[in-house]
Amino acid sequence: MIIVHHLNESRSQRVLWLLEELGLAYDVKHYARNAQTRLAPPELKAVHPLGKSPVVEIDGKVLGESGAIIEYLAERQGSTLAVAPNDEARGDYLYWLHFAEGSAMLPLLLKLYVGMLGEAGSMLMQARIEPEIDNHLAYADASLGQGNHFVANRFTAADIEMSFVLDAAKMRGGLERYPNLVRARAANQARPAYQRALERGGPYKMGA
Predict the structure, then answer these.
(1) In sequence order, what are the residues at sequence separation of 6 or more whose Cβ sits closer than 8 angstroms to the Cβ of residue 108?
(2) What domains are there in the chain, each with its CATH number?
(3) Is the entire prediction scored with pTM above 0.70?
(4) Has residue 122 got a pLDDT over 80?
């Protein structure tokens, strides 16, 4: 049994997408952000001590961190969404799977947090954060080239992991400046499994 503890407008949306791509049965427990603070509700701490989403229960085991969840599920199922250790594309697969959270999301999150400071944070954002966002998104855009996938031009779990970066960039990072990323995002959103995940997860403004 797989249970996804799903927080609205969060990284857990890509976990739902992965599960739909894998064709696995799962249950969803919904949680809503605090309307003022945008933080997860305290009920999530009863599931995992950090009180964050995504968190999944897999046969009674509680697992956090979206990258770990996606890598674990894709490889556990022996799916083509994972890249086998003896595949020459394995290095690229692991790179993009971890680039999403290890590199690309940091400047986007900094922009969000600094923006909350109002005018006091604007100079810092312009001087350091915006160039870092461009650095990461331009690199990802160039890496895609004319394809829609980050690994050997085939759809993998790395594309699912990167999807939240593209969603966050659409909201906060000027995604329209990177045509390859825009094209790949549209292709991903057209996948039937992506659409099914939206139905299971509920409203997802970041996917607009």
Answers:
(1) 133, 165, 168, 169, 172, 173
(2) 2-82 (3.40.30.10), 90-191 (1.20.1050.10)
(3) yes
(4) no
